[in-house]
Design goal:
254 residues, 27% helix, Ubiquitin-like (UB roll), Rossmann fold, 3-stranded mixed sheet
Length: 254
C-alpha cells in the first residue's frame, strides 16, 4: 500500500510539474493581441501598454492584475478583461469611463467623469460646459459644487444628453441649460436621478410648452416658469465651495 501511495504521489508531482512547465512555456506564449473598446486620445499609448504586458504572458497563464497595472496611469480606463484563445491569441476588452462634463477654466477644457475623475486623455468636445475658476488638482474633483454639477450631467437620460449645453450656479443653485428647451434648476446634485425623471415627465406634457425654466428642486412638485431669464450673469465661473472639500472618491453634494 505504501508503495502504491508513493507511486501516486510521484505521478501527481510529475503531472503538476509538467502542467506548470507547459503553462508557462513558449508552446502557448501570447503572440497575437487584439485590444477593443478604446476611444480616448490616449488609445495608442494604452494599446501599447497592454500589448507589452500581454507578450510576457501565455494563453494558459493570463494575469489580469498585470494588465490592470499596465494601464493604471490612464484614468480613462475603467476596467480590463482578457480572453485567451490557445495556443497564441489573447483578446483584451477595455471599458472606458464616460466623460459627462467639460470643465472650462479659461486656460483650457478638461473632461471629467460623473464620479469626479479628470479624464485628460479624453476629448472634451461635444460635452456640456461648466466654467470654473480653477482646475481640479491631482486628477480628481474635490469641490462639492463641481461634484454636484458632475452628478447632474452624469444622471441625464440618454434622450437629453445631446441637448445639454452648460451647467452653472445661479440664485437657485445648479442650473442646466438645454438646447431648444427650458433651463433646468436642480439646486444641487442630490437626487439627480429623481429630478431628471421629473424633468422628462414635465417636458413630455404639452402644458409645459413656452416655459423658460423648470424648477426641479422638489421633484414631486416641479414648478414651471415663463418670465425671462432666471439669472443675471449665467456666465460667471463657478466659485470654489467655501465648505471643506470632500474626501477623494466621495460625491457629497451641497
Amino acid at each position: 500500500m505504501k508503495r502504491i501511495l508513493a507511486g501516486v504521489l510521484v505521478t501527481g508531482c510529475a503531472l503538476a510539474g509538467g502542467w506548470l512547465w507547459v503553462r508557462d512555456s513558449s508552446l502557448v506564449a501570447v503572440r497575437t493581441v487584439t485590444v477593443t473598446g478604446l476611444a480616448s486620445d490616449e488609445a495608442p499609448e494604452i494599446r501599447s501598454a497592454l500589448r507589452s504586458a500581454a507578450f510576457d504572458m501565455t494563453t494558459l497563464h493570463v494575469r489580469e492584475d498585470a494588465l490592470r497595472a499596465a494601464v493604471s496611469p490612464y484614468p480613462s480606463v475603467k476596467s480590463v478583461e482578457a480572453d485567451a484563445d490557445p495556443p497564441h491569441r489573447l483578446a483584451i476588452r477595455v471599458r472606458e469611463r464616460a466623460p459627462v462634463l467639460a470643465i472650462d477654466t479659461g486656460a483650457g477644457r478638461v473632461a471629467a467623469s460623473s464620479d469626479g475623475l479628470v479624464l485628460r486623455g479624453m476629448t472634451a468636445s461635444g460635452l456640456p460646459t461648466l466654467r470654473a475658476r480653477s482646475a481640479p488638482a491631482a486628477g480628481r474633483v474635490t469641490d462639492r459644487r463641481t461634484l454636484g454639477a458632475l452628478a447632474v450631467a452624469g444622471g441625464a437620460p440618454r434622450e437629453l444628453r445631446a441637448r445639454m449645453e452648460r451647467v452653472w450656479a445661479g440664485p437657485r443653485g445648479l442650473t442646466l441649460d438645454l438646447r431648444d428647451g427650458p433651463a433646468l434648476v436642480f439646486g444641487s446634485g442630490a437626487d439627480a436621478g429623481r429630478k431628471w425623471l421629473a424633468a422628462v415627465r414635465v417636458l413630455a406634457d404639452p402644458s409645459s410648452a413656452g416655459a423658460t425654466y423648470l424648477d426641479l428642486r422638489v421633484p414631486e412638485r416641479v414648478a414651471a416658469g415663463g418670465l425671462g431669464p432666471i439669472d443675471d450673469d449665467p456666465d460667471q465661473p463657478l466659485s470654489a465651495d467655501p465648505q471643506p472639500p470632500v474626501e477623494n472618491g466621495a460625491t457629497v453634494n451641497p
